[in-house]
Amino acid sequence: MPDLKQFRLPDVGEGLVEADIISWKVAVGDVVKVNTVLVEIETAKSLVELPSPYAGVVSELLFPEGATVDVGTPIITVDVDPAGAAADPEAPPPLADDMVPTLPVDDMAPASPAGSATAEAAKGNGRTSNLVGYGPRTTEARRRPRKPSGGQSTPARELQTAFSTNRTVARPVAPPRPPQVVVPVPQQAVPGAMLPGVGTVPGPGLPPPARAQAKPPVRKLARDLGVDLATCAATGPGGSVTREDVLAVVAGREVLAAPDPDGVRRPARREERIPVRGVRKMTAEAVSRSAFTAPHVTEFITVDVTRTVKLVRRLEKDPVFEGVRVSPLLVVAKALLVAVGRNPHVNAAWDEAAQEIVVKRYVNLGIAAATPRGLVVPNIKDAEAMSLRELADALATLTATARAGRTQPAEMAGGTISITNVGVFGVDTGTPILNSGEAAILCFGVVRRQPWVHKGRVVPRWVTQLALSFDHRLVDGDLGSRFLSDVASVLRDPARAAVHGKWEPF
Question: Is 454 labeled as catalytic in the residue annotation?
Answer without folding.
Answer: no
